[in-house]
């Protein structure tokens, strides 16, 4: 046998072996290279996710070069998740385009888009043109979105009117409260999310200012992290007057859930007597859904939900997620992604370090970074974690 033929057989054998190892060990690769998925790519067709309550649609686009590149690239069992309305189309296209250019065109992580009503064909088609990744579109069940029947609407309206008088943003909005409750307790229960462990939350009209030359998902996985953030402001106290009291009650009732070496020192400056209003801004978060699906968070959300505070006040998912992460995770399981330049009006995180800024080809103004703005809690995080 000629020497070149032997080398060819060796290369084909290594390629085939790697293919089967990845199919056995990497769920995302197995899904991407399944016969069904390849057939769908070649047809350029759409596919309904089997058994989905809301009949979500999946769009596939085949990029041969990037598909073969995935053979040698490890990926986590992860997805981007975007909650959007049809009217958010232009802003969603912007966000997807930017994360693709800055990160995902090299990794091809899938996307899950969620809406409380069916997405239009225009929405699905324009989004699918932005990426060669798997894109899935689902409708949120009404019981996960709408204000529950047991809420006393007269009581809820009185508080909404009070916030409107105080000119508090979204103070009078029921749909905003629906969103906050959904993001607090239901997004990770959606059928399209069940096959994934990790998620990266993205919203319409956000900006990614720097190239991301590492994989945040595998970083989280390899370093035993459960929650990642970029921006940490104070919450509006008027929107959560009773939340801290309920958190204190829950901790007293369930001391078994409170982690050793937790991050509650970030949330309180006086040993837990008062809440300092610090929280992680959840419009950007990369996290482990097993953390939200675990007994501790399930009990916590169910307790908070039973009080009606999402509607009788205006509890945001950001303080709810943040307080849970601070209670149930060790502080070194929470990670600040300094390298990821990110902006959501009106705040921007821009890496201050010259090497990080240059390496990432960042286009943000470091002088405008929110990190140590007077309304930022970053200094509290630095003190807790020893960064200063």
TrEMBL record:
MF terms in GO: alpha-1,2-mannosyltransferase activity
Is-annotated flag, keyword Transferase?
yes
Determine if Transcription is one of this entry's keywords: no
Instruction: Report the GO terms under cellular component.
Output: Golgi apparatus; membrane
Q: Which Gene3D superfamilies match?
A: Spore Coat Polysaccharide Biosynthesis Protein SpsA, Chain A
A biological process term (GO) from this entry: cell wall mannoprotein biosynthetic process
Q: Which UniProt keywords apply?
A: Transferase
Q: Which Pfam families match?
A: Glyco_transf_15
Q: Where is the active site?
A: 285 (nucleophile)
Q: Which family does it belong to?
A: Belongs to the glycosyltransferase 15 family.
- Protein name per the record: Glycosyltransferase family 15 protein
Source species, please? Collybia nuda
């Amino acid at each position: 046998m000629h020497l070149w033929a032997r080398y060819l057989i060796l290369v084909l054998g290594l390629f085939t072996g790697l293919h089967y190892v990845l199919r056995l060990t990497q769920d995302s690769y197995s899904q991407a290279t399944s016969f069904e998925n390849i057939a769908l790519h070649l047809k350029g067709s759409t596919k309904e996710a089997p058994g989905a309550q809301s009949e979500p649609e999946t769009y596939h686009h085949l990029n041969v070069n990037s598909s073969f590149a995935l053979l040698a690239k490890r990926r986590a069992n992860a997805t981007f998740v975007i909650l959007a309305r049809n009217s958010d189309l232009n802003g969603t296209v912007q966000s997807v385009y930017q994360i693709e250019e800055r990160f995902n065109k090299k990794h091809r992580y899938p996307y899950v888009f969620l809406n409380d009503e069916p997405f239009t064909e225009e929405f699905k088609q324009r989004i699918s043109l932005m990426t060669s990744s798997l894109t899935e579109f689902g409708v949120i069940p009404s019981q996960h979105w709408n204000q529950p029947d047991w809420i006393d609407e007269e009581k809820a309206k009185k508080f909404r009117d009070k916030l409107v008088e105080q000119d508090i943003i979204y103070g009078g909005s029921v749909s905003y409260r629906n969103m906050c409750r959904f993001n607090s307790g239901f997004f990770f229960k959606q059928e399209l999310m069940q096959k994934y462990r990790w998620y990266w939350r993205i919203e319409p009209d956000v900006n990614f200012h720097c190239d991301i030359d590492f994989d945040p998902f595998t970083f989280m996985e390899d370093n035993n992290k459960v929650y990642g953030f970029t921006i940490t402001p104070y919450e509006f106290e008027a929107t959560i007057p009773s939340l801290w009291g309920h958190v204190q009650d829950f901790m007293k009732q369930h001391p078994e859930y409170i982690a050793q070496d937790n991050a509650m020192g970030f949330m309180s400056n006086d040993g837990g007597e008062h809440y300092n209003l610090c929280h992680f801004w959840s419009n950007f978060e990369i996290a482990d859904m097993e953390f939200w699906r675990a007994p501790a968070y399930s009990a916590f959300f169910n307790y908070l939900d039973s009080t009606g505070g999402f509607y009788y006040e205006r509890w945001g998912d950001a303080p709810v997620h943040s307080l849970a992460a601070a209670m149930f995770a060790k502080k070194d399981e929470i990670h600040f992604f300094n390298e990821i330049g990110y902006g959501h009006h009106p705040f921007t995180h821009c890496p201050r370090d010259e090497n990080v800024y240059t390496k990432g080809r960042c286009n943000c103004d470091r002088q405008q970074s929110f990190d140590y703005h007077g309304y930022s809690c970053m200094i509290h995080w630095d003190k807790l974690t020893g960064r200063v």
